[in-house]
Design goal:
six-stranded antiparallel beta sheet; SH3 type barrels; 3 domains; 11 helices; globular; 570 residues; alpha+beta; endopeptidase fold (from Nostoc punctiforme)
Length: 570
């Protein structure tokens, strides 16, 4: 996915050993290694973006890196190293650290306009990437090729310890909500949030653009300045003090989390398919820590376990105590219900409007109602053939209400986390096959890294939010950056299906296996160039494809691949 407003951290690199690449050990920002740029050359088309980083730097060094483009009219670069192609031509993007400079040559090609054609692979009413056949679209096709697909890869009693390691991993950008001090200086926080808004208006997001589109309305520079002044005033006037306390809370409706206090759809063009100000989306019952609330009361700045940003206050509820929060948001394994299907919509109800048509997405975790506490009747219904859960809802005063709700047993849900097996991982991933892509989680959908995160949430594993952070998990990792195609494929052959492959800052996918010398993945993707085609295919769905497809820069996915991660091997 395209990372927004995220701190970019260094990657550790292991060298080639006897022609093979060893798994990267647990992260250590101070590990020795030669500093280098992630790419020395790349090719883009106008409008494309790519994340550049310096490898083998410490967090302290990251803060000192400066970025510069030799030709801003051709390629722009943010202070975090994200490049965006403007028009055809070539330019050099330079990262400077101390007295040393690291350069990437960027070539921007003209877009070849072509009429999109259906994929070469068509069976009945379905179309696929040209290397994919209909029988490949079932999880069983892939896990039946594994010797023991029901073998438990990580036992449940190890979950807490491995999640704690991820929470502490340098560069994973995690928030340890359970152990975080809720006392803070909200005056200082307010100043920081105002600076962040300046950064969004400046190089952090909008950059040198002279116009953007807000909910379809074009804003010129003056209109943008006015809008940001209004948002800043809303934050500036918020109640704050030197000695304040964050509130424990939960999400009551699936909610987008934004980099600014607005729910506006912001695009760089009138047809932009991505809402450019979105950070992530949170499922119902996700735990949050609530900080500053805007003067108008419509937005609150929150921390999730792997992100921060602004959320609409009518989609969250405040807990009376940490104990209430822990019981609601962190139910024990045997007392929790996990949604391991793409999406559940609760039945419509006139008598219980707060539970009527509630949206529960992949990875939602809810506390079960104890057997002795289940009433004989819930609203107009007997709880026969249903699971009874505490659904978090928002009271008129903003406090948490634990509302009884029924989830019919025919839905794909689990009592407690699923066993982490290849069979279960792939079955969970394939339940979303064909679902639409949503940048940052917009449109009630998922992007590539949120898809991975929500899949593994069903197994009790907590993943960082974005690709650049997900490779910082202290797991078995393979650095593919300097490898040839043959060397990368040798690593693929070692991987267990369910492992993750990625080109950080751009895309993450789940490895499926090898068929007739081709390697396959499933992912929530935006677009690609099919094998042998010069036409960009806007997929915008969860789909299966071979790694022979190409990116906009002309490179195959294998040529672009930089990391392989086995998220259960700690």
């Amino acid at each position: 996915m395209k990372n927004i407003k995220k701190q970019i951290v260094a990657f550790l690199v292991m060298g080639l050993i006897a022609g093979q690449v060893a798994p990267t050990p647990a992260p250590n920002a101070d590990a020795a290694g030669k500093v280098k740029i992630s790419r020395t050359a790349t090719t883009l088309y106008p409008g494309d973006s790519e994340q550049l980083i310096l490898l083998n730097t410490t967090k302290k060094q990251d803060k000192k890196v400066t970025w510069k483009s030799s030709k801003k009219t051709i390629v722009k670069v943010t202070k975090k190293g994200r490049i965006t192609a403007v028009k055809s031509g070539s330019a050099k993007v330079t990262a400077k650290l101390g007295k040393k400079s690291y350069t990437c040559k960027v070539t921007v090609k003209k877009v070849l306009v072509a009429t999109p054609k259906p994929s070469a692979a068509t069976e009945g009413n379905q179309m696929f990437q040209s290397d994919v056949t209909n029988d490949m679209t079932t999880a069983a096709y892939w896990y039946n090729k594994v010797s023991d697909p029901t073998k438990v890869l990580l036992k449940r009693d190890k979950l807490d310890s491995v999640n704690a390691l991820t929470m502490k991993a340098d560069g994973a950008l995690m928030n340890d909500l359970k152990n975080r001090d809720i006392n803070y200086n909200s005056n200082s926080s307010k100043n920081g949030l105002l600076s962040e808004l300046d950064d969004v208006r400046g190089e952090g997001r909008i950059g040198s653009r002279t116009e953007i589109y807000r909910d379809g309305e074009k804003l010129d520079t003056a209109a943008m300045d006015k809008w940001f002044a209004e948002m800043k005033a809303n934050v500036e006037a918020a109640a704050s003090s030197d000695n304040d306390t964050r509130k424990y809370g939960v999400v009551t409706k699936r909610a987008d989390i934004w980099m600014a206090p607005t729910n506006a759809y912001v695009g760089w063009s009138a047809t932009d398919t991505d809402s450019e100000f979105i950070n992530t989306s949170a499922n119902v019952n996700e735990p949050i820590l609530i900080g500053l609330t805007t003067k108008d009361g419509k937005y609150a700045h929150v921390l999730t376990d792997n992100c921060s940003g602004w959320i609409e206050t009518d989609k969250i509820a405040i807990c009376d105590s940490k104990e209430e929060w822990l019981a609601q948001a962190y139910p024990t394994d045997e007392n929790s219900l996990v949604v391991d299907s793409s999406h559940i919509v609760l039945e419509e109800s006139y008598t219980s409007p707060k539970t009527s048509k509630a949206d529960l997405y992949l990875g939602t975790i809810l506390p079960l109602v104890g057997k002795s506490d289940i009433p004989a009747q819930i609203e107009e219904r007997y709880p026969w053939s249903s699971y009874t859960v505490y659904l978090p809802t928002r009271a008129a005063d903003g406090k948490l209400e634990k509302t009884l709700a029924l989830i019919p047993v025919h839905h794909d849900v689990s009592i407690g986390y699923l066993d982490l097996t290849v069979k279960n991982i792939l079955e969970t991933a394939f339940k979303c096959l064909g679902d639409r892509y949503g940048w940052g989680g917009m449109l009630g959908a998922m992007d590539c890294s949120l898809y991975m995160r929500n899949i593994y949430r069903c197994f009790g594993l907590t993943l960082p939010r974005n690709t650049s952070a997900q490779i910082k998990m202290p797991t078995t990792r393979y650095d593919l950056t300097e490898m040839s195609t043959a060397q990368k494929e040798a690593i693929y052959d070692k991987l267990t299906p369910g492992s993750m492959l990625m080109f950080p800052g751009s895309h993450i996918m789940m490895y499926l296996g090898k068929i007739d010398d081709k390697y396959y993945v499933i992912s929530d993707l935006g677009s690609l160039f099919d094998v042998g085609s010069e036409t960009k295919t806007s997929v915008y769905s969860v789909a299966i494809n071979s790694l022979d497809v190409k990116r906009g820069n002309g490179k195959t996915w294998t040529e672009s691949m930089t990391w392989a991660v086995v998220p259960w091997e700690f």
